[in-house]
Amino acid sequence: MTEPAGQMSFDVLPRLRGYYPSLSPSEKKVADYILLNFDQVISMTLADLAHGCGVSDATAVRFCRSIGCQSFLELKLALTRAIPDSPKLIHDDIEINDPPGEIARKVFQGSIQAIEDTMAVFDENAFHQAVNMLAKAERILIVGVGTSSPMAHEFGNRLFRLRMKCEVETDSYLQLMKAALLTECDVMVVISQTGGSIDPVRTASEAKIRKCPIICITGNGLSKVAELSDVVLLSVSHETRPETIASRVAQHTLIQALYVALAMRSVKKTNEAENTIWEAVMRQPPFQSG
C-alpha cells in the first residue's frame, strides 16, 4: 500500500529487495538497475531511468508505485536518504569540501542547465495554445501551493499589467472554492513542479468538472495534474529534492515567456499600461518604513 506523500520513513533499498519477487518482469529490470546504480539514479530524470533499464516511462512509474512511492521524485528522495549525510539533500552537485565560490558556480550552472533542459523539451504548439487560451479567457485563476506560491503570484503580477482579469489563490481550501465557480469561458493555471501534490490535483479536478480549460506548468508530464490539464508546459529540473531551486528558474522563464507573448498581441496597450503604472508610482512620495 502506498504511503502518504512526505512520509518516507522506510529504508528504500531493503524495501526494494523485499518487494522484488512480486514485481513484474519489466519492473524487475528497473529494480535491478537501481540496485546497481542507486547513487546515479538520484540525478536522473524518469526518462533517463526508463532508457537505462530498457523499459517505458509508464513502466518506471508503475515500479515506483509498486514499491510504495507515489512518484519518481519520492523514490529519488528515498534513495538520497540512503546515502548518510549526503550534501545532495541540499544540492545535487555539491561536494562536502566545495569552497563557497565553487558552490555558487554549481548553483548557477544548475539554473542554466534547467533552462537548457526546458528549452530542449519546449512544445511550441502547446505554448501557442496556452497563449490563445489565456488571451480569450473571461477570468483566469492561477493556483499554486507551498514553494509554487511565489511563482503563482509572479504570474498574476505579470497578467494584471496587461489588464487581464486574473486572480491568484495559494490557500488550498479557497482555491477549491473558487474552482467550483469557474466556467468553460475561464482558464485555470496550475503551477506544480511534482504534479502530484493533493491540493493542485483536487483543485484541477474540480475545474475539470466545471469544464474549465486547464493549463499546468509542471516538471512531471506523467503526473495527475498533467493528466487533468488541456495544455502542459514542462519546466525541467534534475534536482532530487521536492523544493527544488533550479526548477523555479525554469518556471519563472516560462511565465515571462507567456507574459511577453501576450503583451506582443497589443504592444501599444501594454506600453500604455506600464507607463500609467510607473507614473502613479513616481507621483507618490517615497514610501516610509516602520
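The record above closes out task 2.4. Task 2.5 opens with a second protein, given below.
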Amino acid sequence: MFAAFANCFKIPELRSRILFTLGLVFISRLMTVVPTPGVDASALQRMIAEIESNVQGGFLSWIDLFSGGALSNCAIGALSIWPYISASIILQLMTAIIPALERLAREGEAGRQKLTQYTRYFTLAICLVQGLFLAISLENPQSLGLTHDVVVNPGMGFRLMTMITMTTGTMLLMWLGEQISERGIGNGMSIIIAVNIVSRLPNAVYAGAAMFKKVDGVSQFNIFHLVGLLAMLFLVTAATIALTQGQRKLPINTTKRVVGRKVYGGQNTYMPLRVNYSGVMPIIFASALLTFPAVILKKIPIDWCQAVGDAIYLGRPLYLVLEATLIIFFSYFWVATQFNPVQIADDLKRNGGYVPGIRPGTPTAEFLDMTMTRITLFGAIFLAVIAVLPTVMAAQFKVPSLVAGFLGGTSMLIIVGVALDTMRQVESHLLMRHYDGFLTKGKLRGRR
C-alpha cells in the first residue's frame, strides 16, 4: 500500500491532480478560521461554551462537526457546503416529479449543465436565507436563553454584511469543489465535507483522552472502556465499508445480433444493485425533520408543546425510535424517486438484454422492483443502526458528542464513502499507467 502511494507521485498527471486538490483543500480550510466582520470573537466563544453546556449542545456540535469548526468561529465558511447539498437534493427530488426537469436530465451533457446552473441558483437563494437567520440569531442571543452580546453594531447593516459574507463563502466553497472534481482527484464537494469532519478529529481525541482523567481521584471510564471504544470503532468502520460496498449482482444476458459481417451482443454481464442505494440522504432527511421541530416546539410557551419538544429532542428514546423509522422510510422514498425499474427494463429490452429466467418488459420491471425492495430493507435497517449509534453513545453512556460522532452516523459514512471513491479514482490512474493499485503489491508492471 505504501509503495502504491509512492507510485502516485511518479505519474506526472496524477501528481499534479493530487497537489492541486491539496492546495484547494488548504484554501477551504482557511475559510473556517477567517471571522465574520462585526462579531466579538471572545464573546462568541463564551456563548458557544454556554450553549454546549445545555441541552442544545448536541445539535450545535453536530452542525459544527460538518462545518469543520467554522460555526464555532463564526467564520465566513460557517454555512459550509451544505446549502449546495440541500439545493442538489431538492433539485433531484423535483427532477423525479416535474416532467420538464426529467427531460432535461435525459438530454445528455447540455441538460446536466442546465440542471447544474439551476442548482447554483438554488444554492444562492438558500445561502441568503440562512445567512439572514444566522445574523438575526447572533443579534438576539436572548432568544436562545443566553446573556452574551456577540454583535458589536447590530442592525440592518450587520445583517446585510453577514448575508453577503456567508453567501460569498459558500459560493467560493462550491467553486472550489467544482474545480477539484474537474481538475483534481475525487468528488470535490464530498472531499471538502470529509476534510471538515476529519479536521475535528484532534478535538475528538482530546475529548476522548479527557474522559479517562481522574476527578477527585475517581475516573468515570477505565481501560476496559477504552478497549471497548477501540473495538467498536473498528467494527463500525468495517460495517460501514461493508454497507457502502455491498451490492447484489443481478446477471444480465444479451442476445446476439448480426449487423452486416459483425456480431453484436451474446455477452454475459451483471447489473450491480447497491444495498445502500440512498447513501447518507435518509440520515440527513430524518435529522432535519426531527431536530428543527423539537427546537421550535420548546420555544412555544405552552405546556404540551414543551412536553412534545422535550420528548422528541436529540438523544431521547422517542427521538431514537422516530429517527430509525424515518431513516427506513426515507431509504425507500429515495429508491422510489431515483430508481426507475420500468425505464431500466425498457432499456434492457431495447438493447437486447434480459435477466435469465425473467421475461423482458413488465415482468423484468416487477422483478427489479421486488429485488430492490428486499435489499433496501436490509440496507435501511443497517443504516438506521449505524445512524442512531452515536446518539445512544452520547445519551446513554455519557460519551462526549464529539467523540461519539466518529463512532458511526453521517460522519463515518461520509468519511468511508469519500475515501473509497478517491482510492478508486487513484487506482484507475495507477492501473492505466501499468502500476499495481492499493490492493496488490505496488510495483511497476510495465512501461508508462
